[in-house]
Specification:
Length: 520
């Protein structure tokens, strides 16, 4: 190796805090007959098993109401795995070795006897750690969370203050409450029986590779962070657009709407990671402290401010990618005159030293033109001299786009000279692509999250004060809309980028949405 090779060597630093271990444990999934178990949880556990990341031994118990044998449950899961696994092909030998660890426990969530049965099953494994180290995954309707946790505690399966009795963790799926008051109530109910340290609130966006990369991008490079302030940044755009409509989830969506379904959690989490201050360490509490601090600095909107800062929309009939789409109001289990929003765009301000005066624009919607999640950091224009003086608005401002999905990667946009004798300037783009750099392997968010819960690392989960603060941000918006029927102007044709008012939201500031672009 000559000297230049050595200089070019790519140093890889493995972050290992020396604290992470996987101990034998049992994962109990409540709501095991549901969609999430078949589509996400079991495929994730299968891949972790295949990659030898699960502890040995490790058991998985599906707990649900329907009568079913272990064999029948395994057969169902195998079929689902073939359909939903990220690698598609199911390796028979791996599946056989994995499937012997899957067990089914039939029971009513409300009956004490069901939890005795679960306890007997755990004892039957004949291994102290499988009996005591427990991950309870609540993938049920949120109204059942408190009841299940209470029963687990009474059956002495979940122990709050007994450090010597193994460890037990409760993983809670979203939605976590439907407003601040219900989230606070749920938190009080859960913490009667489980310590806050035992509660792992899921936001699957935090398990995405690209979302995790936000902190590395910001805090392991010296060239970007100094630009990450109001001195350099003009505004920030966070887009999470989806080509899908609400499909079979009309009933759920009527209660949720885009604000609760996406903004309260995924978009605010991404915004917190983009805008937070550097944490004092990489420990879970330090990272979460900074996220909470950021969420607390987001300016609360009063009812009179909602109209000027937040836009809602609902899709009407249209076409997405050549496929006809029903109007939201025609979807199954949706009220014909529903005012529920399938689109939200919001202008938020962060009242702190770093970001004062920089608008953060967030938008999300169903049945939009493209499925893409990205964050665009739009930098200030150059001073109005030299090229800017001649080009005016035709001179593009610099931007960094973090593409969270698809085409995961980062693009830097800056101006360059068009080759030739005439003097022309236009933006050029420098792309980093995960695929090109690291190959196609991208673990599913649930793989990472399940592993973290087994390891007892809560960094990627939402803390109590975090979820409550996030509700505090969206509640006034919901309350304002609650009193107003959706007008025709708030409808957008399926397959477009949302209602016209979303354009105006930015136009008043001299800004415009930059829609995600396919990468060529
Ligand atoms: C879920 C929402 O939390 O996130 C869905 O309930 C949404 O409505 C989904 O479609 C989007 O997740 P992803 O990973 O496909 O971007």
């Amino acid at each position: 190796m000559d000297q230049s090779d050595q200089l070019d060597e790519l140093l890889t630093c493995r972050l290992n805090f020396g604290t992470k271990t996987v101990e034998p444990c049992t994962i109990v999934i409540f709501g095991a007959s549901g969609d999430l178990t078949a589509r996400k949880l079991i495929p994730a556990l299968y891949h972790l098993f295949a990659e030898k990341q699960l502890p040995t031994p490790c058991k998985i118990i599906g707990f649900a109401r329907r009568e079913k044998s272990d064999e029948a449950w395994r057969a169902e899961l195998k079929e689902a795995l073939a359909q939903f696994s990220r690698t598609k092909r199911v390796d028979q030998a791996v599946w056989d070795a994995f499937a012997v660890n899957l067990h089914y426990c039939q029971g009513e969530f409300s009956e004490a006897s069901a939890y005795q049965k679960l306890g007997d099953m755990l004892s039957g494994f004949g291994n102290e750690q499988l009996r005591n180290n427990l991950v309870f995954y609540l993938s049920t309707s949120p109204s059942q969370f408190a009841e299940i946790v209470e029963h687990l505690s009474k059956a002495k399966l979940l122990r709050r203050d007994e450090p010597d009795a193994g460890w037990q963790r409760v993983v809670v799926e979203k939605p976590f409450g439907h407003d601040l008051a219900s989230a606070q109530k749920l938190n009080s109910e859960l913490t009667r029986f489980a310590h806050e340290k035992q509660i792992y609130r899921i936001d699957h966006y935090l398990g995405k590779e690209t979302v995790q990369n936000i902190l590395m991008f910001r805090f392991s490079n010296s060239i970007f962070e100094q630009l990450w302030t109001r001195q350099s940044v003009d505004h920030v755009q966070i887009t999470v657009s989806e080509k899908i409509g609400v499909g079979a989830r009309g009933g759920y969506y009527e209660e949720a709407g885009a604000l609760r379904d996406m903004v309260q959690n995924h978009l605010l989490q991404v915004m917190a990671l983009i805008a937070m201050e550097p944490p004092v360490s990489l420990q879970a509490e330090a990272v979460r402290d900074e996220k909470v601090k950021l969420l607390k600095s987001i300016r609360r909107l009063s009812a009179s401010q909602v109209g000027a800062n937040v836009v809602r929309g609902q899709y009407s009939e249209g076409e997405v990618g050549g496929h006809a789409r029903l109007a939201y109001r025609q979807e199954t289990k949706v009220r014909p005159g529903s005012s529920v929003e399938t689109y939200v765009a919001a202008k938020l301000h962060v009242d702190n030293w770093r970001w004062a005066g920089v608008p953060f624009y967030l938008r999300t919607g169903k049945n939009l033109a493209l499925s893409a999640s990205e964050v665009r950091i739009q930098f200030r224009p150059t001073p109005n001299v030299l090229f800017a003086a001649q080009c005016g608005p035709k001179l593009d401002a610099n931007a960094i786009t973090l593409r969270l999905q698809p085409n995961e990667g980062i693009t830097l946009r800056f101006n360059g000279k068009v080759p030739g004798t005439s003097m022309q300037i236009r933006p050029v783009r420098m792309h980093f692509s995960y695929d090109a750099e690291f190959g196609a392997y991208t673990p599913e968010a649930y793989e990472r999250l399940l592993l973290e819960a087994i390891e007892g690392d809560a960094t990627l989960f939402i803390r109590r004060d975090e979820v409550e603060t996030a509700w505090g941000i969206v509640d006034p918006i919901r309350e304002y809309w609650g009193g107003q029927a959706l007008s025709d102007k708030e409808l957008y044709t399926a397959g477009t980028w949302g209602p016209v008012a979303a354009e105006q939201l930015l136009a008043v500031e001299g800004h415009s949405w930059r829609n995600p672009q396919p990468i060529n």
